[in-house]
Please model this.
Amino acid sequence: MTKRKAIALYSGGLDSTLAILLVQRQNVEVTAVTFLTDFGCDGGDTSSCSRNPAPAAAQFGFTLKLSHLGGKFTRIVTNPRFGHGRNMNPCIDCRILMLREAGELMEMTGADFVITGEVLGQRPMSQRRDTLHIIDRESGLKGRILRPLSARILPLTIPEERGMVRREDLLGLSGRSRKPQMALAREFGLTDYPTPAGGCLLTDPIYSRRLQDLLRSVPDPGPEDLGLLRLGRHFRLSMACKIIVGRNERENDQIAKAKRTGDVLMYVKGAGSPLVLLRGTDAGMYLEPGASLCARYSDARHLPEVTVTVSEGATEYSMKVMPAGPDFIEKHAVR
Model:
């Protein structure tokens, strides 16, 4: 018999890994696709969607492909057809987009169906029965999406009907408990997987407020603007001017690399200091507030007056300011 093929949505997390292993155990060849975005799912942070998927693929012998969703994903974040969750997470639209992309890969590679690690009732927005039905319909893959962890309590799918997989060897999990998955992981010898505490950055309230703030001034942000949302402390001085204050040496380095024409950088010489970035068409109007924030978060914050070095284009000069007070921080902080 011809060996069956499946495409798997793969985050590198416990559920998606187990879904693959359950299907592989039935002699199905699996190609896992990990989708990358400009909102944290790129291996550049510690959210669960940034889990490195390569080690498990190597350990268990399935093919891994990476696919960056780019502007397609940005558009559904800014204007999701099925709405946001509690924060900026467009969970239903996200799932539909990823499944459509997986469906295209399925057609290109001659695969038979798509698998996901979804568990009925585990996530309040995208893993209810009604939303699973919407996702299946809107993705164009109705009947061809197999959810091995909950298959036995979900409607029969085409791969089950046609004997590509045995329904009785799949699971019927529901709810938020991970104990059954952890037991199954031990059975498979899967020991290295992320805790369920992490999650998509778009579910994080602070990150979401920063994104909302950015979209009010930059309706169509690029990857560089979105990348800065993960760095430092953010302050909004006007609709056009934003200030980002580095919190450590790593963030200072990343902020320095993100500087572009028109940006202003600030730091305090001779003291532990953040690197401060002013970005916006009217940034020049807010040099003193920016310098006061730089002083406030430097090791010189106890001084009544601090000398801050300002790098503006090819010009570097100094200005003396008082460190910003708590009222200023409270008024302008984006958090």
In short: Residues 43-48 have pLDDT under 50 and may be disordered. The longest strand covers residues 29-36.
